Amino acid sequence: MSNTPSSFGALGVPAPLVTALTAAGITEPFPIQVDTLPDTLNGRDVLGRGKTGSGKTLAFSIPMVARLAGALSGGKRRPGRPVGLILAPTRELATQIDAVIAPLAKAYGMTTTTIFGGVSQGRQVTALKAGVDIVVACPGRLEDLMKQGFVSLDAVEITVLDEADHMADLGFLPVVTRILDKTPSTGQRLLFSATLDNGVDKLVRKFLHNEVLHSVDEANSPVAAMTHHVFETESVESKRVLVEKLASGSGRRILFMRTKHHAKKLAKQLTDAGIPSVDLHGNLSQVARDRNLAAFSAGDVKVLVATDVAARGVHVDDIELVIHVDPPAEHKAYLHRSGRTARAGSAGDVVTIMLPAQRKDVKDLLRKAAITVSPEVVTADSASVNALTGDVAAYVKPAPRTTNQLPASGQRRTGNDGTRSAGSQGANAQRKRARRDGEGVGAGAGSGRGGQGGGGARRGGAGAGGGRGGSVGGGSRSFYSTSSDGASGGGQGRGGSGGSAGGSGSGEGGGRRGGAGSGSGAAAGSGRPRQSAAAFSAGSGAGRRRSR
After folding, report:
1. What is the pLDDT of residue 426?
2. What integer pLDDT is reported at residue 465 of this predicted model?
3. What pLDDT, on a 0 to 100 scale, did the predictor assign at position 199?
4. What is the reported pLDDT for 430?
């Protein structure tokens, strides 16, 4: 359109919000904002088909704040009766929406709060009792608080459903329907969804009135700004090396896994290889999820290893590479994962890694996603891999997990600090050496559980306790696993059982109680490690297993 407004002011956005947007470095509207703001600012119901990364959060945040701050709401805020409601499918998305809308609301002296599960409801109840203007909520916890009488939606004047298709995928539509039934039918409603299947169309028909449909033009779609690659690698071991190489670049990148276990495991493997990484999946507490996402968003770590649960909840700009380490089962998941890059008008690359046995599945996946790309057989040293990796980030020595621990029998002492000196080696060379140094020596009894440690660590002897591993004779391995050790079968398992009765026993795995169990009378226990503790079997056996 030749007469497309080039500023928020020209679209009718009030001056205080233009000032707040400018302060955040946002001066030019995106297409979906240009399309929807004239209607939403005038109170029309809107169905937005904006894809992720298209600027839709501001597309609904601006009119909500502008209209609620104007003559529409009026009056003084009342406890437990918000006037604006935004529903989001995940905790991460709710938090990030609040981060966008809160500064806008502050420009008018309005308040916001988030409501979601996984944390104590105390802070949320306190905020509601104090009175908030705008609530950004996940459906489950919001309904719980409604049933407890802490919040009423009878004063809500504007309701937003963000990523309604994802709510449908998660089974939230019945709850969403009950929530919307509690809002006044005369209020303004804005619904944003990439698709209208799985019951989303029923929500539109029931709750939107005389709505205006707006879709981001396909030419401006983030999918069109992505470059897609399919890399085939010959074995699980070569896949592991390839993943490590692609993760070693200096820019932000997200690696997707199918299972929570493998996401946690890969993040640990990369960190141990000198590539600081954090994981994001459903098994983490809310505090841990917030901490890991904050570290990734702030650039403290450049690699995030996530499951599909995070595909919709991570809205971080400047992600240059998305890697499908495990190709997803459905094409919708592929698009949602891939949408983490090419955001806010930037370009990005998407890599799918497959083994020969996965050719048909990946071909069908890309066909359904309408992605045309030719697979390429690669190694970690291929030119196309080097081009996507870019500048290799500096090697970061992993933080030690134990202190003042004598090396177990069969382990080499590598220096005063227990690590091999990096010297003048390059980052990749240091990572390779770190992998070699990370190999423990198997115990004589290492067949099933990695042994008890050659010196009988349980009674304070001088061995290191064993962690539960796979079968030394070649245990089962996930089809999508990036483990490089077919003989050990992987797994974190039980920490060492050293130091429980005194003496100098040490349990390398680190149980829940007593840490590493080093020293006299330390209660090391043999519980499972909380995070990704290394598990060694000490003794004189000939078997070897990786600590990663």
Report:
1. 62
2. 40
3. 83
4. 64
Residue type, 212: V
- Region label for 239, one of left (φ > 0), alpha (ψ between -120 and 50) or beta (otherwise): alpha
Residue 229's DSSP bridge partners are 351
| Residue numbers of the chain with a pLDDT score lower than 50 | 1-2, 217-224, 403-424, 439-548
What pLDDT does 271 receive? 95
Task: Give pLDDT, residue 448.
Answer: 41
CA distances from 112 to 25, 77, 146, 162, 213 (A): 22, 12, 17, 17, 28
Let me know: does 489 contact 471? Beta carbons within 8 Å: yes
What the block records as the tokens of 301 is 């770590």
- β partners of residue 379: none
Query: Over the range 147-174, which residues count as b (16 or more CB within 10 Å of their CB) and which as e?
Result: eeebbbbebbbbbbbbbbbbbbbbebbe
Q: How far is CA 122 from the centre of its chain?
A: 26
Per-residue DSSP letters for 408-420? PTTPPP--TTSS-
Domains of the chain: 9-219 (3.40.50.300), 221-389 (3.40.50.300), 429-548 (no CATH)
Q: What is the pLDDT of residue 165?
A: 86
Both structure tokens of 106: 């502050």
CA distance linking residue 92 with residue 108, whole number of Å: 25
Q: How do beta strands 252-256 and 46-48 pair?
A: unpaired
Strand partners of residue 346? none
Quote the pLDDT of residue 76. Answer: 63
CB within 8 Å of 257: residues ≥ 6 apart: 263, 266, 305, 306, 307, 325, 326, 480
- Cβ contact 343:370 at 8 Å: no
Rg (CA), the chain: 26
Q: What is the DSSP letter of 466?
A: P
For the four alpha carbons of 499, 505, 508 and 509, in that order, the dihedral sign comes to negative
In single-letter form, the type of residue at position 87 comes to: L
pLDDT tens profile 438-468: 544 333 333 344 444 444 333 334 333 444 3
Output the CA torsion sign for 84, 89, 93, 94. positive
Q: What is the pLDDT of residue 346?
A: 60
How far is Cα 94 from Cα 137, in angstroms, rounded to an integer? Answer: 6
- Rounded-to-integer distance, Cα 103 and Cα 229, Å: 38
